[in-house]
Amino acid sequence: MSKIVRGRPGQTSPWLAIPTIAYLFLTIGIPLFITVVYSFLQRAKIGMGVTWHFSPKAYKDLFILENLDGTTTFDTRYVKVLWHSFQYSAVTTVATVVLSIPIAMWIATRNESTRNILVAAVTLPFWISILIRTYGLRQIIDDNGPIGWIAHKLGYENFHIIYTPIATMIGLTYVFLPFMILPIYASAERFDFRLAEAAYDLGAKRWTVFRRIVFPSIRPGVIAGIALVFIPALGSFLQSDMLGGGKTNMIANVIALNFTQARNWPFGCALSVLLILLTLLLVQAIRLISKKFGDQVSLV
Amino acid sequence: MGNIKRRRASYAAAIAAATALLLTACGGSSTSGTPTAADTSAAFPTSGSGEVHLYNWTDYIDPEQLTAFTAETGIKVILDTFDSNETLLAKLQSGATGYDVVVPSDYMVAQMIELNLLQKVEPATFPNGKNIKPNLLNDIYWDAGRHYSAPWMYGTTGIACNTTAEPKCANIKSWHDYFTAGLPKMDSLKDQVEVVSAALRATGVAPADLCTTDKSKYAAAADLLKGFKPAVIDSDSGIERVIAGTSNVRHAWNGSTHRMKDKVPGVEYIYPSEGLNLWADNLVVPVGAPNLDNAKIFINWMMDPAHAGAESNFSGYDNGITGSDAFMSDSLKSDPAVVVPADKTALISAVPPCGQDARDLYTQVFTTWLGEQN
User: What is the enclosing helix (H) or strand (E) of B8?
Assistant: First the structure.
């Protein structure tokens, strides 16, 4: 990026933004528009897709359930699925933060050439398709895999991780970990570790040093990491499908079902719109939090 | 990706055009262009050039047969795969061209005909059309008389049970037994139609009435499903899980069960007493197929008993071609999961697709059940 900016700051031509704007318009703007429009249409009588008749039914169906016994009640099913998606994403985010801070700090305290190798190592998983990595993880945490074998040897006969919500969260944590490590590392790298030494010299305990000196410096990275992990995790469906045994539904699984077997595209679109709105709320919340601390979070 | 596909399609179109030119130049009978019944009077081509683009289910055709086809006919097969009828429909409906032969199941054929997505190529009049099994020729709801579709594999959806690992398999004689067995290591398919129709059968709905819009019937099915908490709900991993011993009882296709038996001899296929669904896959030619002649040659070749038999050996399913059993392996021919025993044939019926209202009720029961799992 810095290569493009040759002159002093503020002198770059605004026209340079056009490719980015065009790209975002084509890949986000138009699909978003189609999603919103489709959510207000009726679905096709046969086959896939929609017919061009206005209908708010999809939104009604989000919350109102016509029961099989003829009564009408508030539909808790999608709220529940959303709540589960939130829980899984929240646990994933916490797990990635806890794992990433020591990893990022450790990398940041190596010498420069080691640091470069380690950062490259963190990005190494991106070289392989996420689908293949998830299959690989499934083999590892399967009852017949190494984890199951060790648990069995230790005497835990009923040890069982695969096809549970825990497996889903392990899968999410595994996939999103680099997205937490890298921003935290970016903050930690700029941290002047002499400050921590000074705190030690002045008698601060380890935990106090971390809490009052180190953490405030890496907080922008943590907040950026939360945005990069929590939001995509909320829309994930591969992990719950492959590792959760098809039972731990996340909202994206329900959306996928409506575009395939259920063949209700307007409803799938309405669910997507709901997810987008919730995501926007989250982004706002994260922005407010970072503002409160006065941090500069480059990614939000 | 899109670019590569488009390039491939235009390449295919160029070849089709070249083939058409060649055919007219030779003064031969041109069978390309709009298909009509009159075409059949012309000699049926047995070899060609260029490519045929096949869009098939994953792991559903013998690669050796494709090599043999190319060696015999000079036509190269380009294979692309899909994972569900809905994926296939979405692709064709979105206007994807470039496929010459696709493989939809029964109900999907009916829908594609209704949506004008298929060419009326009259497979029954092909040289090998005479081999179509009589019961799969006229008495089929999706394409009576076989004007659009040639038969491919067919099978049933029942219950696979590992009798060695789970002695209580003997107690499972019906769908009701299956849903209420409460055994460990039970799996389910993740298929709205299969799961809900089985639950409807289990609660006393007659096979002919499976598209009912009577909500009380669905309420009963939903009640039954409420207590059914399988270890895994998944349509893809069944064979490997049963072989690995992580699953002992599961809602399964008969061909998958045959493949499980190969590795785990204790596995048995149960024909539930309330009856089971018959499904049948088909070879069809979509509108806009760039290589129509090659598509016909391919379909005709696959209706040869030797080739159909080889495909059955590969997939573990019976097929719709008379005389193909002579080419099937003994283990396949002697498997009651694959070749339906005489006393079970009455249990089996093809289920026509339900209307919108019934399908919505299926969706409601299915999503409610999935939501109750965690």
Answer: helix B2-25
| Average pLDDT of chain B to the nearest whole number | 86
Q: B21 CA to chain A: closest CA distance, Å?
A: 36
User: Which residues have C-beta within 8 Å of that of residue A170, sequence separation ≥ 6?
Assistant: A137, A141, A161, A243
CB B189 within 8 A of CB B195: yes
* Residue B275 φ/ψ region, left for φ over 0, alpha for ψ in the -120 to 50 degree band, beta for the rest: left
Domain B155-278+332-371 homologous superfamily, CATH: Periplasmic binding protein-like II (3.40.190.10)
Q: Where do the structural domains in chain A lie, given as residue ranges?
A: 75-292
**Cα distances (Å, whole numbers) of residue B354 to A250, B92, B149:** 28, 21, 21
A43-99: pLDDT as tens digits: 888 778 889 999 999 999 999 988 888 888 898 889 999 999 999 999 999 999 999
The answer to whether the Cβ–Cβ distance between B89 and A48 falls below 8 Å is yes
How far away is chain A from the Cα of B251, in angstroms, using its nearest Cα?
Answer: 15
Q: Where does chain B hold its CATH 3.40.190.10 domain(s)?
A: 2-29+41-152+281-328, 155-278+332-371
Rounded Cα distance, A272 and A259, in Å:
11
DSSP letter for each residue of B249-311: EEEEEHHHHHHHHHH-TTEEEE--TT-EEEEEEEEE-BTT-TTHHHHHHHHHHHTSHHHHHHH
Is pLDDT above 60 for A162? yes
Count the neighbouring beta carbons within 10 Å of the beta carbon of residue A145.
Answer: 16
Tokens representing B222 are 């939903």
What's residue A71's pLDDT?
87
Nearest CA in chain B to A80: B371
Topology of domain B2-29+41-152+281-328 in CATH is D-Maltodextrin-Binding Protein; domain 2 (3.40.190)
Cα–Cα separations (whole angstroms), residue A150 to A18, A133, B200: 56, 21, 43
Q: Inform me whether the pLDDT recorded for A26 exceeds 50.
A: yes
Tokens linked to B82: 């899909």
Query: Is B115 within 8 Å of A46 when comparing Cβ atoms?
Result: yes
In CATH terms, the fold of domain A75-292 is: MetI-like fold (1.10.3720)
Low-confidence ranges of chain B (pLDDT < 50): 1-41
Token pair in block for residue B307: 């080739």
pLDDT at A297 over 70: no
The CA distance from B76 to B52, in Å, is 6
Contacts of B367 in chain A (CB under 8 A): 77, 254, 257, 262
What DSSP character marks residue A232? H
User: Could you give the ipTM of this predicted complex?
Assistant: 0.78
At A205, list the tokens: 């305990």
Burial status of residue A294 (CB atoms within 10 A of its CB: 0-12, 13-18, 19 or more): exposed
- Joined tokens for residue B78: 């380009």
Q: What pLDDT is recorded for position B49?
A: 86
Nearest to A68 among B222, B244, B366 (CB): B222
CB pairs under 8 A between A and B: 85
Alpha-carbon Rg for chain B, nearest whole angstrom, is: 22
Concatenating the DSSP letter of every residue in A145-173 gives: SHHHHHHHHTT-TT---TTSHHHHHHHHH
Residue A189 in contact with partner chain B when CB distance is under 8 A: no
Q: What is the pLDDT of residues A182-233, one digit of tens each?
A: 999 999 999 988 998 999 999 989 899 999 999 999 999 999 999 999 999 9
Q: Which two tokens stand for residue B176?
A: 């009701």
Q: B335 with B261: CB under 8 angstroms?
A: yes
Residue B181 to residue A77: CA distance in whole angstroms? 26
